[in-house]
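can u do me a favor
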């Protein structure tokens, strides 16, 4: 369910960017099933954001979530952590079952290779996002390092080298793997932070475009939906929804921004929205869903602070449902613009 919802979040964000940059009332240019096709049709009359910015940024958002999806956790990392590490994370001699399991994860490198290929292709695209591109390059390097260590480990056990040295090399490889995964985690966090900054920058451009066009209600709506997407993308980048103290602090900061942007949206009158061609009932429905969204975001964070994982999952699900309705409502409005 979470994986499906995350795809909806990315789709909603992309449609948001496309619709605002178009600045047109004719929605025939927006093909929601083929965003690449849509962006090539976008008019170039926007002085604030280009179609290439939208395409590259949206792909970066998509790639941000990939390393946390199920196939990564169901592959090498999960088996190695369970069968080759003790409770403190130190190496332990694996069982025959563990060795067989790690050999079966040999195809894990294909997951790395595909992701690295997609990331490298996006880095090369224009325009250049200096900080994000650089952090993505560092992530690529650490991913390649991790992939190489995985190949070494699988080869070591596949060829039964442990029988000759009584797992001595296995201990070294386990430590090596721990180091490269820590390096990858740090570089991923740097990449994620750089992308958050870019998201805020692009979001500001979109809002300014709406404000320049005299669309205050739309500007407030875009600002709020963008903040809601930022929260959702950060929260649900973690498949297991287990957050450390720094991650909880980050979620609280994003929730505060979302709350502030919602208050501006709430202050926007139905009359002002109507003057901009926004359907009153649809506008009211977004406000209603947003109150539920904010309430469950707050409860989800409090549950994370209290380490009550069951409650985190419950409120996360409720948040996603409210977020989905909010994004769907926004997409209906933007498609009419």
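np, heres the sequence
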């Amino acid at each position: 369910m979470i994986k499906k919802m995350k795809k909806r979040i990315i789709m909603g964000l992309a449609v948001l960017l496309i619709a605002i940059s178009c600045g047109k009332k004719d929605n025939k240019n927006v093909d929601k099933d083929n965003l690449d096709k849509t962006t090539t049709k976008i008019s170039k009359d926007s002085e604030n954001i280009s179609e290439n910015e939208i395409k590259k940024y949206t792909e970066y958002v998509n790639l941000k979530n990939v390393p946390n999806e199920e196939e990564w956790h169901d592959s090498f990392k999960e088996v190695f952590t369970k069968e080759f590490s003790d409770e403190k994370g130190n190496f332990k001699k694996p069982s025959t079952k563990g060795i067989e399991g790690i050999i079966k994860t040999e195809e894990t490198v294909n997951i790395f290779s595909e992701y690295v290929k997609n990331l490298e292709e996006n880095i090369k695209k224009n325009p250049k996002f200096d900080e994000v591109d650089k952090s993505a390059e560092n992530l690529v390097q650490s991913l390649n390092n991790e992939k190489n260590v995985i190949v070494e480990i699988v080869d070591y056990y596949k060829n039964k080298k442990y029988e000759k040295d009584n797992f001595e090399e296995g201990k070294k490889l386990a430590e090596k793997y721990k180091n490269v995964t820590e390096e990858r985690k740090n570089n991923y966090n740097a990449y994620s932070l750089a992308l958050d900054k870019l998201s805020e920058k692009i979001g500001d451009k979109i809002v300014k475009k709406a404000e320049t066009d005299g669309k205050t209600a739309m500007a407030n709506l875009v600002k709020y939906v963008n903040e809601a997407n930022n929260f959702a993308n950060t929260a649900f980048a973690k498949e297991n929804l287990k957050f450390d103290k720094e991650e909880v602090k980050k979620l609280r900061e994003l929730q505060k921004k979302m709350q502030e942007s919602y208050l501006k949206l709430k202050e926007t009158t139905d009359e002002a929205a109507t003057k901009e061609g926004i359907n009153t009932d649809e506008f009211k429905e977004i406000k209603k869903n947003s109150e539920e969204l904010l309430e469950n975001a707050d409860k989800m964070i409090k549950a994370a602070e209290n380490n009550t994982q069951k409650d985190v999952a419950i409120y996360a699900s409720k948040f996603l449902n409210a977020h989905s309705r909010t994004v769907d409502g926004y997409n209906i409005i933007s498609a009419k613009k």
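Residues 23-47 have pLDDT under 50 and may be disordered. hope that helps!!
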